[in-house]
Amino acid sequence: MSGSAWPSPAARRRDLAAVAALTAAAAVAYAIHSCVRLSRFRAGAYDLVIFDQAVRAYSRFEAPVSMVKGVHNGFGPGFCVLGDHWSPALALLAPLYWIHDGPATLLVAQAVLLALSIPFVWAYAFRAASRYGAGGGRVAHPVAAAYALSWPIAETVAFDFHEAAFAPLLTAVALERYQAGRGRAALLTALALLLVKEDMGLLLAGFGLFLLTRRRDRWPGALLVAGGVAATLVATSVLVPRFGGRTGYYWAYWTLGPDLPRAALHAVTRPGDVLALLADPPLKLRTAALTLAPVLFTALLSPAALALIPPLLERLLASTYPNWWTPRYHYTAFVVAPVFAAGVDGALRAAALMTRRAGTRAGTGRAARLVRGWAMLVLATALALVPFFSFGASLTPAFYAETTRTRAAQRAVAAVPDGALVEAADSLAPALSPRTRTLLWDRTPRWAPWVVADVGVRTFPFAGLRQQVERVARLRGHGYRVVFEQAGYVVLTTTPAPVAARSRMSIPAAATAAAKGALGRRRPSDRPATAHRATPARASHSAGPGGPGGATASSRDAASGGTGIRALTRAAPSRWGQPRTPVARSVSMSGSTLPRCAPQPSSAAATTAHHAGSGGPSC
């Protein structure tokens, strides 16, 4: 940024020092918030462990496999996350795992990435205000602070880790570079968004719509619109299935049609249905309003707001995945920087319009005062919204408190040995992921040698505590023994009890226990005759019958339609181009044998089951 924008070198140093301090403070605050949630067992397997397992694999130069995602969602234990979302940008975080291997690394990285977008939002506001004679720093400082406190950033920080962490930085850099006249740098940065998520082509198309309003950039704008839409189609239809995903797995527009061609035809021939869908349910309109509220809706006065249209329509036209249109989670982070950039531009345009009839000098002075007043109101709005979103929790002592359940959770995870294959309750899985092979404790039994259950509070993906209690009872009935139980946490295992513990049993009791175990292994009647019926959730496969002390591992695998634990425990290491496969080269999932980390056939039934069970956030 040119030094001529400041009245003196001292003013320049003060402004740059202020934005640097704000950026550093935001990074620290974001990291503390996320890491406190992690240490207090408020993070989850969905979605933190998914990314933890994938980035750990990247750090070992292996395919980005997430066993917890693959097993829960019916893809198999060797599922590549690139088959879930096209996010190769995650590989950039792999070197950080050479320094510290664990989920906290992702949370700190996310905090830094989000904070690094602040200087570019500040620079955009500073340059725009300076051009209008509004005093750059007096507008840019409150706008940047409001951005740092904004609810889309807060919800992203508070919901584990996601690829959305890259989006605010890349979009802010692209907009600031374009404003500075560096079109090539802006284009390259915008293109990098295509490595963040498969639908970022829609945001790229939105940038193209904005460029169409500028005479000298109409051709590049048209290319961005066409190229962005094409990139999204290629990512969702070619790249994601190539890495083991299912075409249409995240299709959410069933009200319009079962696929893109029929949905597009419906939208063109019956536009009234599209308008009705934008307000059904009404929460969609409230979320759209909240998206623009941080800048007091002045973004609507800027052509830059056109960039918001495709990504917002993607969410608001959905008829499934209600998390997409709620003002929670990380989804609004993809557009938060464009919202603030358009808000600044819209405020300056409004001020200029309101003072047009005044003389040149008087009008400029009045416009400057209006814009500075707007900036202070934007900051006041951000502060007023803090208690209503996730950052508000960090203002209370309870957020940092270590409770009885927290201490019990620490003991529960400590009871599981390193390297074990373990099914862990959603909130406990992040603590186990760095040192065990972690699966989600699910409605579907996986029959892992270790299980860490939670019967104290309802946990994802169960519908209620009763289901969780029944799952623990079922494990006990199939030969699992309890090694820890406190404050609602139960640790169970199939491993033999220590010799010292067994020696305390009387000889008759030991003989009786051995006889019961032998009978349990031999009697087919001890095994359930039908598969456990899964309640609606993300998993599309049914629970498997049998269990330790009932059927053998191989027979349970064949009968249950669940993940073969024998295959899981015999997994071989993977390399790029050589899928991470067990010795048997395949695993049984939902009754079909599918290659691991390889393209899998599209299943309409599985997709339908998935849509019926989108009860929780998905990565």
UniProtKB/TrEMBL annotation:
Ranges annotated as spanning the membrane: 104-125, 185-213, 219-240, 288-309, 329-352, 373-400
Biased composition (Low complexity): 531-543, 602-612
UniProt-annotated stretches for the region Disordered: 514-619
One Pfam family in the UniProt entry: DUF2079
Keywords: Membrane, Transmembrane, Transmembrane helix
InterPro entries, per database record: STSV1_Orf64
The protein's name in its UniProt record: DUF2079 domain-containing protein
Species in which this protein is naturally found: Microbispora triticiradicis
